[in-house]
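G., before I forget:
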Amino acid sequence: MDGHNYGYNLPISEKTKMVPWEEKVRIVEEVKSDFRFKEYIFGCLNCGVCTASCPSNRFFDFSPREIVQRFLEEDVEVLYDMMHEYIWACSQCFTCWIRCPFVNNPGGLVAIMREVAVRNAFEATKDLLKPYGRVLLKVMTTGNQLSADMLQPDFFPDWGPKMADNMENLRAKRLAIPFDVGKSVKTAWEVSLETAIEMYTIWRETGIFEMLEKLDPNLYNVIMDIVEENEERYQELYGEEE
Amino acid sequence: MAHAKLESKWGYVSPGGILRYPEEPPFPVKEYDAHYDHIFEMMEELEAKGEILIHRITEEHQPIPVYTRTGRIKLIPTNKLWHHKSCGQCGNIPGYPASLFWFMNKFGLDYLNEPHQTSCTAWNYHGSGTSNPVALAAVWLRNMHQAWKTGYYPLIHCGTSFGSYKETREQLIMNKELRDAVKPILKKLGRLTEDGRIVIPQEVVHYSEWVHAMRYRIKELYEKEGKAKGIDVSNVRVAIHNACHTYKMIADDYPYDPEVYNGQRPAASTAVIKALGAQVVDYSTWYDCCGFGFRHILTEREFTRSMAIQRKLKVIAEEVKADVIITHDTGCTTTFEKNQWIGKAHGMYYPVAVMSDVMFAALACGAHPFKIVQLYWNCSHYEPLLEKMGITNWRELKKEWEDTVKYISELEKAGKYDELMEFFKEYDLYEPYSKTSTGKPRASATANMPLFKS
């Protein structure tokens, strides 16, 4: 049989089939070794309330019940296969968590699975996250994730003609906000240099830059240029004080 | 006033104790997952052991008690607040924070808004997986340390930051390995106390909880100033959308109240609308998410559009014919607003105004719809709502705002910066950086960077 014989409705991909069994076990064990794993999964009645209320289940072939069940059954083949595209359908709303009678947290399990997929630089992950580059650039370099100038009408044509109007003469419009929120155009608020430097330290110490380098080397290089330039400026400004 | 009853019956000053259970549950509560309340006892134990320092809510924060889902009483500080801004709100819906600041000015409250804050980075984590719990914890504790250092109590604007921070707090309290992993990083950043402890706030507080706690004062302002301007919200039909990350992440720690659906649904936002006297209309998909989905809003927009239109906008328009959807998170507001127009192409156009509780409340209290509530940035059809509320002069008010933009633009183009600065002195309602908490000269992470130069 091409797919799994019950539950998981997608056929196991050829790529997954070709991966050595030991590698699949290693990846699944990496998920299970996360300290949160034991806090996110307890037992499962297979009641399906999580899937019944899951927004992604309405529009994708995605089921939080399947995630929990496959972990309980230690179904390595399916779990490994899920970690390529399946898990990216989850909208991280955690409706599954609040509704589960056992307080399982399938959305939390997905978060761990995504993290492990990114850390291991799965090809599918690289492709899926390409359009996310602008957010990654902002968050890694400034600690902000969204700014006024990111809402360009050509990127969001489906958001309507009002978007184009909003973006015209953007700087003056942002300055006209009479509180010191949203006055900047390229960041949500002006982030102090000291704060950005602290952020870079956190990324370095926790392996996030490393994660990014594997995921998207070009984006990593652009980000590191900005990081290094800011670090030099910081040294020039405050070096003697430190 | 309901909260006065709460105060007199149960009290909220508990020397040396964080837990403040009522003697009996004020409404039917679920008990199976009340384990969450245990973390407050554990926080005290960790503090006694010298591992953490609890940033406590004191009288100067003018706290107001509210019930949470398990009947625990949570203190909501209302004064001397450190604004943990939201990148989505500031970047996309600036009327959100502006309305909040406007209320704080109206009530004469003290607050601090400074550039020494990162976002929580949780949107990135939920959307891309490119972070980890140690990094998330370090970012949170870094921001919380900054708030504590300034003497102001953190108020979290974003729903995802609020949910993520509550989750991170639980993880930190329950897992020594996480505390051990994050401490050396915080030490490097200079973000531990002098005796090497991490700073954890007594409560993680969302702005909607502040609005909830302040609802009777907001109502007084509406009676005094809004109504005097001819504003009347009693005919307005309001559909509430609760944000997933406020009440589904660490579900126990969010306000529930006997007066709102007998304590069976989140109380924040609904309660302030009820206090203002508008009509809260119920609809069958109230529990559904908006479809934001973190990465979906950017890269899987067909999902976001489908969810927003079919499960929410259509239902809200057809079942209850609401005039406005009230939200309390950036992602939801954006999703509902921006996904209305596209429905036109498929004969699924359900125009309904969308805004946050604090924006609606500010409008009711007479705030300028464009200068303060910044409706200019909102894409939904808010004009019929303004008419229904009695704000019939919105065209003149919009022109006033547009003239201001034009004036600023002309001064800038002509290089008249001195004149511009003079104008801002009068115009700005919050002096930029007047309260920046470090003595260091101001330096921006972005202002001089070619990639970010405005």
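Chain A touches chain B through 99 residues (CB under 8 Å). The CA atoms of residues 201 and 209 of chain A lie 10 Å apart.

More on Monday.
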